[in-house]
Structures are given as C-alpha cells and as structure tokens.
Amino acid sequence: MGGAAAISFDNVSKEYLLGKVPVRVLDNVSFSVDKGSFTALVGPSGSGKSTIIFLAAGIDVPSRGKITVLGEEISGKSEAWRRRWRSRNVGIVFQFFHLVPTLTALENVMLAMEIARVRGDRRLRALELLDFVGLKDKANRYPAELSGGEQQRVAIARALAADPPIILADEPTANLDYDNKVRVVSLLRRAANEGRTVFFATHDEGLVRGADKVIRILDGRVVEG
Ligand SMILES: Nc1ncnc2c1ncn2[C@@H]1O[C@H](COP(=O)(O)OP(=O)(O)OP(=O)(O)O)[C@@H](O)[C@H]1O
Ligand SMILES: [Mg+2]
C-alpha cells in the first residue's frame, strides 16, 4: 500500500478575488493520489472540488503551496508550459462534455492528438478509441447528434487520445442516466486498470463506493484522505 504519489498537494491555498475582496476557497489543502489508483474527491457543492481538479490539471495555479504531478512541480510554471505539459500528461473529462460542436466525434478525438502532437496514424487510433467507448459506428456524428451519454463517452475517448498517464474528471456522471453512468464509470475504471491514475470529483455515491480511495473536503479543507 501507499504506492508512489501521482498527484500531491502540499499546503495549497486558493483565493479568488471578488472585486477587490479575496475569497478563500481552499485553505491549506494537503493530500496525495497514488499512482494507478481510482481516487474520488467528494464534498458538498461549493466545497472546492472543481477548483482542486482545475489546479491538478494546471489550468489554474494556487495562491500558495505546491502541486506536484508525476514528480514535476506544476504550480510554479508558466501558463504556456502548463498547457503543453497538460496536452501530453493529462486527459480531462468535464461535467458538460465540452466537445467542439463544429467537429465530429472522430475529429474531436483527433484534435486532442494534434494538440499533443501524437505521432502515427491519428485517424486509426481515434477510431480505436471510439471503438473502446462503444461509438465506432457514430464516429462521424456531430456532438448535437449524440445523446449526453454518448457525448461523455466521446469526451472519454478524447481524454485518452494522447495516452496520458493521468485522467482527471469533474462530475463525469452528473448529467447521465443510470445506464450511461454505469458505462462511463466502467470506462474510467478500465483506464485505471490499465495503469493510469484516475482522479475524479463526484457527488455520485455509486462512484464513491467503487473508488480505491476517497478524499473528502468541506469548506475548502480536507477532512478525510
Ligand atoms: N472565479 C471565481 N471567483 C470567485 N469565487 C469562485 C470562483 N470560482 C469558484 N468560486 C467559489 O469557490 C468555491 C468552490 O467552488 P468549486 O467550483 O470548486 O466547488 P465545487 O465543490 O466544485 O462545487 P459543485 O459541487 O457545486 O460543483 C465556491 O464557493 C465558489 O463560489
Ligand atoms: Mg464543481
């Protein structure tokens, strides 16, 4: 137990400015996520889950403290560095899918490969990923021509496009019906079983029960994990 950490937060605080007033959203948060684990981040609405996922992805930086991902301290790096690093190391799945509406399912997956400069036959690999999520026959559909569950599965294929060691997900099952929830959870679980680290924020108790580890936050502080 206690394998190597894929993600660690050391005394991370985050403040947002509301006008001129700083609002503390994370208060000295420390935790780690083991390599290869399927780890849940749980807490009430407004407790700071999305903030943590965005910080772990290097989309945002903390006000104080240190964030280390796969041995690399990302919190002190420039935005350009973080963007490039993210395209190769992190796949992200959001609550509202965030697919590019003017691109087909296949093109959405291929775009992530282009951004990460994945070599080889991108089209073939994108089709394999869409097959993995059960959507090979819908590869040429636009997001608006897919159900919510199908769009989320395209988003998972896209997150896996650059074969990243880390998958981050923010409420990946929040807008799905039961069957699609089960599908999305099993795809994320498979991604972890293949050796990736999967770290996800959720309200979904079913998803929490299946996790290897649960990190609980309350009002911007870690209360368990
Ligand atoms: N850009 C911002 N400016 C000011 N406050 C913000 C900003 N973004 C988030 N917050 C505040 O930070 C707190 C944490 O927000 P966050 O989105 O991380 O919560 P969450 O746990 O993901 O909630 P939910 O379960 O509703 O998604 C909230 O009180 C929110 O109002
Ligand atoms: Mg959130």
Model description:
- This protein has 225 residues and is α/β, with parallel strands linked by helices.
- It has a single domain, classed as 3-Layer(aba) Sandwich (Rossmann fold).
- It has seven helices and ten strands.
- The protein has a six-stranded mixed beta sheet, with helices on both faces. The chain has a four-stranded antiparallel beta sheet with strand order 2-1-4-5, covered by helices on one side.
- The chain starts with a strand and ends with a strand.
- The relative contact order is 0.20.
- Bound molecules: adenosine-5'-triphosphate and magnesium ion (MG).
Overall domain count: 1
What is the CATH topology assignment?
Rossmann fold
CATH class: Alpha Beta
Shape type: globular
Architecture, according to CATH?
A: 3-Layer(aba) Sandwich
Order of helices and strands: EEEHEEHEHHHEHEHEE
Estimate the mean pLDDT confidence: 93
Question: What is the CA-atom radius of gyration, in angstroms?
Answer: 17 Å
State the distance separating the first and last CA atoms: 14 Å
Fraction of residues in H or I helices: 25-40%
What molecules are bound to this protein? adenosine-5'-triphosphate, magnesium ion
- Widest beta sheet: strand line-up: 6-7-8-3-9-10
Largest sheet, strands/sense/barrel = 6 strands, mixed
What class would the helix/strand composition place it in?
alpha/beta
Number of separate strands? 10
Beta content comes to: 25-35%
Low-confidence stretches: none
With helices defined by DSSP (H or I, 4 residues minimum), what is the helix count? 7
What is the H level of CATH, i.e. the homologous superfamily?
P-loop containing nucleotide triphosphate hydrolases
